[in-house]
Amino acid sequence: MTATDLSAEERIRKAIDVGREYLGVDNGVLSYTGDGRYEVVETNIQSGPYARRGVVDLDGTWCRHVVESGEPLGFADARDSEYRDDDALETTGLHCYVGAAVDIDGETYGTLCFSDAEPRNDPITESERDFVAVLAEWVGSELERQKHYAELREQNERLDEFAGIVAHDLRNPLSGAIGFTELAQDHVSGQAAEFLDRVRGALDRMESMIAECLMLAKEGTDVGERTRVDLDGVVRNAWDTVRTRDATLSVDIATGTTVLADEMRLQRLFENLFRNCVEHGGPDVAVTVTGDEGGFAVADDGPGLPTDVEHALTAADAENIKSFGLGLLVVQRVISGHGWDLAVDSDDEGTRFAVSDVNAAEPVHEALAAD
Question: Which reaction is recorded as catalysed by this protein (predicted)?
Fold first, then answer.
């Protein structure tokens, strides 16, 4: 049911088929039971009121008992049970039934049930009720992940909108200020030229801060869907996009190494680490990247980080990380968003950022990678 070549909907249908086969009944239904209605979300039934997207009155179904009690319900023949006079027997025409509640974020979403118009010869056992309850819990987790991923996508869309507004409303007037400063620099000398150099430096820093803030807006959220990313390729792409001056890069990554990640955010992580190496390690710093399936590391031979910044990075202390620049905060956010671990070792001979557990994500990320 967690095969990577199946979509979330296909996995739920597979769960329904597994339940039907295990219980030896004809029908399997995932329902939504909000607002007193019974809406069929997924099923193997092809026609009639209980086909997919069908809606009936919840009070006329066996599932109402599951919704009311929150407990699994099962019987092989309603006529031989305490429910022999229940209206659902006539309304649904189902004699055999096993169902359990499906919960999302602690609230009842609906039910997962299995049924048959014919009575079953063997009684429904406690183990079979437990099986359906476990299957319903799995379906609830699958639906919950879909819901959370949808919320993440919506959040990211809002952040992208914010980033667009910032880019337009701040960068445009800033570009004008830089342009007029450059024009003024061409017509002055002496102390006035020195003052304008300071102005230009401050404007450049503002432009850099805006870029870093926009990056934080996009990278500061939890990561949803992930794909297998070629580690060597993303490292080299990141290096090519950074102004590395006379710095050198050495790459020692095991052949075929991949990382389960959001590729764009992973590249941003490397870009910011490389930028930090060059800005604080000097124009001719030597940078080395190593990696395998367990993780990766970026090291340089620069003068090292201040002790408080090293401790802040290891402890994910955002306030102190910001004191050394937003670039390292982006690094920390990307790592935490993926759920990875970061270790930082720094002395006067260089700094090493080691990221581990990169492929120890929850099974859902593997399962949804192909969706």
Answer: ATP + protein L-histidine = ADP + protein N-phospho-L-histidine
The encoded tokens of residue 254 equal: 């095991």
Spell out where 271-325 has E strands: 286-292, 295-300
Q: Pick from 211, 208, 160, 218: which is nearest to 337 by CA?
A: 218
3-state secondary structure (DSSP) of residue 283 = coil
Q: Residue 26: name the closest of 128, 121, 96, 100 by CA.
A: 96
Separation between Cα atoms, residue 286 and residue 299, nearest integer Å: 8
Please report the pLDDT score of residue 365 as a whole number: 39
Distance CA 2, CA 12 (A): 10
The two tokens of residue 289 are 């990247």
- Sign of the four-CA dihedral 51, 52, 56, 61: positive
Q: Are 250 and 288 in contact (CB under 8 A)?
A: yes
Q: Record the tokens describing residue 86, joined without a space.
A: 């229940």
* 3-state secondary structure at position 93: coil
Q: How many whole angstroms separate alpha carbon 25 and alpha carbon 17?
A: 10
The full set of domain ranges for the chain reads 8-145, 223-371
The reported pLDDT for the residue numbered 86 is 95
pLDDT of 220 reads 52
In 148-265, where do the E strands start and end? 227-230, 248-253, 258-261
What do you get for the CA distance between the two ends of the chain, in Å? 14
DSSP 147-180: HHHHHHHHHHHHHHHHHHHHHHHHHHHHHHHHHH
Q: CATH assignment of 8-145?
A: 3.30.450.40
* Structural tokens at position 166: 């910032």
Structure tokens at 168: 């337009």
pLDDT of residue 212: 65
Q: Which portions of the chain are predicted below pLDDT 50? A: 361-371
